[in-house]
Specification:
mainly alpha; two-stranded antiparallel sheet; about 60% helix; Tscrpt_reg_PadR_N
């Protein structure tokens, strides 16, 4: 997937400035597709020159005017074409898994602190996902009142939650195995 497609999806969900778009990448879509502010601004400029998005000047009080981007028809067509193209399942590249296998040729217990750090990062991410789900997708009427877009956002978030839960279970297994392999002192 190209960054352009992630930007098109985000702008179709809600028009916004480059800064607002970068914040969305930090908060939601960025959980699944990351990009720096510089990358986003560079791609926005190219997409605007290619006619995929349009920008309009929005005046602000006590601040400089900002550009608000929205998707133009050629951008919708490009996204539609991409949505209809088949994609291959991602290949897993997992540095930690290679380190774990490589630990057989060194001291497996030396990896415990690294796996614990890695586990904490995934635990923190799961906490953010669950908080986002609670904030955005719960309530007495949910999910009956969700729009199609919100329902699709929620199913992606649920996939992220399931992935983090699976990763944490695996990391717990890794830690238990590393502790078992610790040499007796």
């Amino acid at each position: 997937m190209a960054l352009e497609h992630a930007i098109l999806v985000s702008l179709l969900e809600k028009a916004g400035s480059g800064y607002e778009l970068a914040r969305r990448f930090e908060r939601s879509i960025g959980y699944f597709w990351t990009a720096s502010h510089q990358q986003i601004y560079r791609v926005l400029k190219r997409m605007e020159s290619d006619g995929w998005i349009e920008a309009r000047e929005v005046s602000q009080q006590a601040r400089p005017d900002k550009k608000e981007y929205s998707v133009a028809e050629p951008g919708r067509a490009a996204l539609s074409q991409w949505l209809h193209e088949p994609i291959e399942p991602e290949s897993v590249r997992h540095d930690l898994a290679v380190k774990i296998r490589g630990a057989a040729f060194d001291d497996p217990a030396a990896l415990i602190s690294e796996v614990e750090r890695y586990r904490q990062a995934h635990s923190d991410r799961l906490t953010r996902y669950l908080a986002g789900e609670q904030r955005d997708f719960t309530g007495p009427d949910a999910p009956a009142t969700l729009t199609a877009g919100e329902s699709l956002q929620h199913v992606v978030l649920r996939g992220g939650i399931a992935y983090e839960q699976m990763t944490l279970a695996w990391l717990d297994d890794v830690l238990a195995t590393l502790h078992q392999l610790r040499p007796e002192r």
